[in-house]
């Protein structure tokens, strides 16, 4: 029971984890941050870019298929949010631009990305549904439990897909091996008969 409790606690911690990062971006540089996210997951982000005279920083959020989810020219501070359409890699890119021949300092960028339960605004939910603080907390725990169940279901589905792929690959390899052996046996038999006829034609054997 203790092991199950710690495993569940770890899953809850991972499910509510928010990705916060701070980095420096030199002028005329592109930097992208990528993350794999499940399907139908709410993702929200908050960013802040330090001031730098003469520099412009563009923000671009897209999926691995090139679909733009959020774009902001000359980004300084703001928020973005979207819901994932499929399980794939999503990226957040910052690009600083400075006029040719000019020099400037690196811009400090702060990015905080949340997904799942942590990305939902329960204050708005409480106002819309007129919930009490305890009811809001219960709602949050209910959504968190649902996210955990969905994550386990997705992992089980992926495991089944990988197992089916392995079994299919093993079957194909087996059939290919049998086919290769049959081809080798047929070729060896043909060579034996051919050499036998050749030696008989040369009267080397009877």
Structural key phrases:
transmembrane helix; single chain; disordered N terminus; 4-stranded antiparallel sheet; alpha+beta; Jelly Rolls; 206 residues
Write the layout of secondary structure elements.
Elements: H1 2-15, E1 19-25, E2 30-37, E3 42-49, E4 55-63, E5 68-72, E6 77-83, E7 88-98, E8 107-115, H2 122-129, H3 133-201
Antiparallel strand pairs: 1-8, 2-7, 3-6, 3-8, 4-5, 4-7
Helix pairs in contact: 2-3
In short:
By secondary structure, the chain is an alpha+beta fold. It contains three helices and eight strands, in the order H-E-E-E-E-E-E-E-E-H-H. The strands form two sheets. Strands 1-8-3-6 form a four-stranded antiparallel β-sheet, with no helix packed on it. Strands 2-7-4-5 form a four-stranded antiparallel β-sheet, with no helix packed on it.
> What class do helices, strands and sheet pairing give?
alpha+beta
Q: Report the radius of gyration as a whole number of Å.
A: 30 Å
| Major beta sheet, strand line-up | 1-8-3-6
CATH architecture of one domain: Sandwich
Q: First CA to last CA: what distance?
A: 83 Å
What is CATH's topology name of one domain?
Jelly Rolls
Top CATH class of one domain: Mainly Beta
Membrane topology: Single-pass type I membrane protein
Protein name: Transmembrane emp24 domain-containing protein 10-like
Subcellular location: Membrane
Organism: Priapulus caudatus (Priapulid worm)
């Amino acid at each position: 029971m203790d092991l199950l409790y710690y495993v569940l606690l770890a899953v809850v911690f991972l499910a509510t984890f928010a990705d916060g990062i701070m980095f420096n971006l030199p002028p005329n540089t592109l930097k992208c941050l990528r993350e794999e996210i499940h399907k139908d997951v709410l993702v929200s982000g908050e960013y802040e870019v330090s001031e730098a005279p003469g520099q412009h920083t563009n923000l671009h959020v897209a999926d691995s298929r090139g679909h733009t989810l959020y774009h902001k020219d000359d980004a300084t501070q703001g928020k973005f949010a979207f819901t994932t359409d499929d399980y794939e890699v999503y990226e957040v890119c910052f690009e600083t631009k400075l006029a040719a021949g000019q020099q400037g300092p690196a811009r400090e960028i702060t990015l905080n990305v949340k997904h799942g339960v942590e990305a939902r605004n329960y204050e708005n939910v409480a106002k819309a549904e007129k919930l009490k603080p305890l009811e809001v907390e219960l709602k949050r725990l209910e959504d968190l439990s649902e996210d955990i169940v969905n994550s386990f279901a997705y992992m089980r589905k992926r495991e089944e897909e990988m197992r089916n792929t392995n079994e299919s690959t093993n079957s194909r390899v087996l059939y290919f091996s049998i086919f290769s052996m049959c081809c080798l046996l047929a070729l060896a038999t043909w060579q034996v008969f051919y050499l036998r006829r050749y030696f008989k034609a040369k009267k080397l054997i009877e």
